[in-house]
Design a protein that fits this description.
It is a single chain. A hairpin with a 6-residue loop joins strand 1 and strand 2. Strands 1-2-5-4-3 form a five-stranded mixed sheet. The protein has a two-stranded parallel ribbon with strand order 6-7. With 164 residues, it is of the alpha/beta class. It has helices at 2-12, 36-45, 63-66, 112-122; strands spanning 17-21, 28-31, 53-61, 68-77, 82-91, 101-103, 126-128, 156-157, 160-161. Helix content is 22%, strand content 29%. The chain has one domain (2-149): Beta Polymerase, domain 2. The relative contact order is 0.13. The model has no long low-confidence stretch (mean pLDDT 96). It has four helices and nine strands. The radius of gyration is 17 Å and the shape is elongated.
Length: 164
């Protein structure tokens, strides 16, 4: 983990890493949201790190009190047998119908494609430059994002009762 953190700080500056959390079960780093794509591209292509596999991407709504959403990236370097977890935080409010945004990493890791679609569908995060960002689990005309803590479930969908 130290090698990757050092590489990121050297390439993108000290402020590129918001925080490092090593004293937890699964250590992770929080990076600046606007540098996410560039950081991921670097640790993917750099021969010292080569994180060639995105095993999981997920999103969490931290609720109104925290006022944030987070996107978590579980990376693995197959040749170096190393794992690395990156998080970014986004403001959770939807302003004038515009969802919170972060860069898509699907051009780096193809596995991100469906993971980002799921986060878009259920949490309501727009992944910029995603090749096909549309709902993956819910119908295209579904209202809202069900894993948001403030989600208000609709009573009917096309005449079918949703709530029981």
């Amino acid at each position: 983990m130290e090698t990757t953190i050092q590489l990121i700080r050297e390439k993108f500056g000290e402020e590129s890493i918001v925080s490092v959390h090593e004293d937890v079960l699964q250590p992770f780093v929080v990076v600046k949201t606007d540098l996410l794509f560039e950081i991921c591209q670097e640790i993917y292509s750099n021969t010292a790190t080569f994180y060639d596999y995105l095993s999981c991407l997920t999103a969490v709504d931290n609720g109104e009190k925290a006022g944030t959403l987070e996107v978590i990236y579980h990376l693995f370097s197959i040749p170096f047998e190393q794992k690395f977890i990156i998080k970014v935080f986004l403001p959770r409010e939807i302003v004038e119908g515009k969802l919170p945004e972060v860069a898509s990493v699907s051009s780096i890791w193809k596995t991100a494609n469906w993971h980002e679609r799921e986060a878009y569908d259920l949490i309501g995060i727009n992944f910029l430059n995603h090749p096909d960002l549309r709902r993956i689990l819910l119908p295209a005309d579904w209202e809202g994002h069900p894993l948001r803590k403030d989600y208000d479930e609709q009573e009917y969908y096309h005449g079918i009762q949703v709530k029981y």
